[in-house]
């Protein structure tokens, strides 16, 4: 039986909305938009999800995103993910989107943004799930292209809380984007960055010192540098760790070898997240469950992870407190059963 702790109220802080495109929706949107996919069936799409590393996944993810064309497509994609949140106790979610993946093939920024934000607004009212939006720059493209994307996003500043950095990490250090992130912070955006997923600890240091990030996305390679581990613990810089993703992309050979528990026990502010749930075999609850089973996480670990998810979020302190209170009530109810 599933542990009742797996349905704890929690937040998700690392989810690429394009990575929630399930094969069924990919095939349906391809049909709706008259696009021919290189797969004959939903099963064939799913069968292609065997990855050796980050790049082999990104090639497929980027190709899959081509079926997203209209505002309705972006709405449907986002709404499907938000329904999963509601079903799994995810009370708040901070969602990445990659405008360059869409704008570079002629889809207007406005179309992408309105489809996603309309679904977020509807989820707040109809599902009681709160959210924030984070714009990610594709790091294998140039800093100039990222700056142009930032400028395109300025009119939408009120609905985008932060900027981030994703895609191929190796060879594209955070320092490449220092000027873009300086400008983003000057324009009022918070910052996050993928670092230490495949890249070395130096990339995590750069994200902290040069990009002045509030959180590190992944960050699991921090353990290779004890001074960095101390710094992350002392400053409580959150890591948005994605267990199933790390196994699917061969960052760890198997879940039993994942360092999530080690990082928690070292006092780091670790959170659990799904990254690209349609590609990696699970949403947030499945990530919690897989990590709990393989690593023997205790109730204390699971409760700490749920608390960390709200504390590491970009919610205002009063809203964080109110979710933490909801969590306490939930725990008290479980204890009294
Ligand atoms: N795991 C990941 N790392 C970097 N970029 C991504 N984009 C989507 N998923 C990603
Ligand atoms: Zn990611």
UniProtKB/TrEMBL annotation:
Question: Which Pfam families does this one have?
Answer: A_deaminase (PF00962)
Reactions performed catalytically: adenine + H2O + H(+) = hypoxanthine + NH4(+)
Q: Which SUPFAM superfamilies match?
A: Metallo-dependent hydrolases
InterPro entries assigned to the protein according to its UniProt record, in alphabetical order: A_deaminase_dom, ADE, Ado/ade_deaminase, Metal_Hydrolase
Q: Which GO terms describe its cellular component?
A: cytosol
Q: Where does Zn(2+) bind?
A: 14, 16, 194, 275
For this UniProt entry, the molecular function terms from Gene Ontology, in alphabetical order, are: adenine deaminase activity; zinc ion binding
- Keywords attached to this entry: Hydrolase, Metal-binding, Nucleotide metabolism, Zinc
Identify which cofactors the protein needs according to its UniProt entry: Zn(2+)
Q: Which residues are annotated as active site? A: 197 (proton donor)
- Site features described as Important for catalytic activity, chain residue numbers: 218
| Cofactor binding, per record | Binds 1 zinc ion per subunit.
The chain positions of domain Adenosine deaminase read 9-326
The processes (GO biological process) annotated in the record are:
adenine catabolic process; hypoxanthine salvage; nucleotide metabolic process
From the UniProt record, list the coiled-coil ranges: none
**Gene3D superfamilies per the record?**
Metal-dependent hydrolases
Give the binding site residues for substrate. Answer: 276
Identify the EC number(s).
Answer: 3.5.4.2
Q: Which family does it belong to?
A: Belongs to the metallo-dependent hydrolases superfamily. Adenosine and AMP deaminases family. Adenine deaminase type 2 subfamily.
Function (record text): Catalyzes the hydrolytic deamination of adenine to hypoxanthine. Plays an important role in the purine salvage pathway and in nitrogen catabolism.
Task: Specify the protein name.
Answer: Adenine deaminase
Task: Look up and give the organism this protein is from.
Answer: Phormidium tenue NIES-30
């Amino acid at each position: 039986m599933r542990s009742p702790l797996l349905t704890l109220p929690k937040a998700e802080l690392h989810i690429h909305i394009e990575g929630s495109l399930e094969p069924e929706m990919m095939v349906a949107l391809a049909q709706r938009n008259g696009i021919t996919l290189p797969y004959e069936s939903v099963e064939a799409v799913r069968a292609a999800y065997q990855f050796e590393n980050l790049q082999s996944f990104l090639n497929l993810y980027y190709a899959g995103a081509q079926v997203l064309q209209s505002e309705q497509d972006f709405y449907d994609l986002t709404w499907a993910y938000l329904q999963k949140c509601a079903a799994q106790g995810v009370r708040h979610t901070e969602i990445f989107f990659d405008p360059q993946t869409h704008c570079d093939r002629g889809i207007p920024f406005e179309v992408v943004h309105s489809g996603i934000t309309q679904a977020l607004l509807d989820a707040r009212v109809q599902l009681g799930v709160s959210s924030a939006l984070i714009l990610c720059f594709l790091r294998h493209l140039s800093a100039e292209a990222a700056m142009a994307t930032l400028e395109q996003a300025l009119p939408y500043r009120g609905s985008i809380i932060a900027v981030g950095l994703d895609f191929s990490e190796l060879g594209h250090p955070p320092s490449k984007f220092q000027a873009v992130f300086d400008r983003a912070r000057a324009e009022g955006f918070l910052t996050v960055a993928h670092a230490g997923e495949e890249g070395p600890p130096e990339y995590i240091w750069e994200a902290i010192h040069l990009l002045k990030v509030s959180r590190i996305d992944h960050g699991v390679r921090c353990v290779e540098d004890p001074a960095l581990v101390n710094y992350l613990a002392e400053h409580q810089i959150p890591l948005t760790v994605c267990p199933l993703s790390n196994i699917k992309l061969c960052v760890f050979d198997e879940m039993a070898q994942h360092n999530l528990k080690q990082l928690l026990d070292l006092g780091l502010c670790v959170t659990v997240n799904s990254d690209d749930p349609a590609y990696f075999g699970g949403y947030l609850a499945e990530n919690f469950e897989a990590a709990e089973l393989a690593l023997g996480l205790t109730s204390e670990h699971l409760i700490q992870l749920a608390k960390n998810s709200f504390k590491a979020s970009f919610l205002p302190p009063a809203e964080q407190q109110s979710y933490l209170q909801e969590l306490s009530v939930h725990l008290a109810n479980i204890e009294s059963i």
